[in-house]
Amino acid sequence: MLLRDIYEAGHYAFTKGPLTWEDSIRECCKPLEIDGTVPSDYADDIIECIHKFGPYIVIVPHVAMPHSTARIGQGGKTAIGFMHCDTPVSFAEGDEEKQVKTFFTLSAVDQDAHLKNMQNLVAVLMNEEVLERLKNIKSPEELLEIDALLSE
Fold it and tell me: What's the CA gap between 102 and 52, in Å, rounded?
């Protein structure tokens, strides 16, 4: 259901790269910015946090979950966005597991919604077949095909 929701909301992007990690954060936030889910400077909040705390957003090898709690409760909407980059984005030179192609950007109206988003995403990412398919995804329609795997 999560991937279908992303598809139906139009909260997805596909890019070839190469991108710096900062540019990848800006790109993965764009689908959420377009409809006002997040403010136009949300990416700056995330980038600032990564500079401060390191690549905390890389939650499993090759998958990042960009998010910031700096604006929770200050407007915006609860949603998850998706971006796939053909060329891996390096969040830590020399660390193969921090070379990211799959991004899930989180936005939430409050702390409870933020935690629920994280729980929903983790449930998706626990499926090895889904992770493998996401690594090589080429089109938005494949989000629907992959989502169907979660219903089986």
Answer: 22
Per-domain residue ranges of the chain: 2-147
Alpha carbons 110 and 26: distance in angstroms, whole number? 22
In which element (H, E) is residue 58 found?
strand 58-60
Give Cα 85 to chain centroid, integer Å: 11
Q: Per CATH, is 2-147 categorized as 3.40.930.10? A: yes
Q: What is the mean pLDDT of the chain?
A: 92
- Spatial separation of the C-alpha atoms in residues 45 and 109, rounded to whole Å: 15
User: Is the pTM value of this prediction over 0.85?
Assistant: yes
Q: Which residue has the higher pLDDT, 120 or 70?
A: 120
Taking the mean position of all CA atoms in its chain, how far away is CA 76? 17
Task: Calculate the alpha carbon distances from 150 to 45, 58, 72, 93, 123 in Å.
Answer: 32, 22, 29, 33, 9
Determine the Cα–Cα distance for residues 124 and 50; give it in Å rounded to an integer: 24
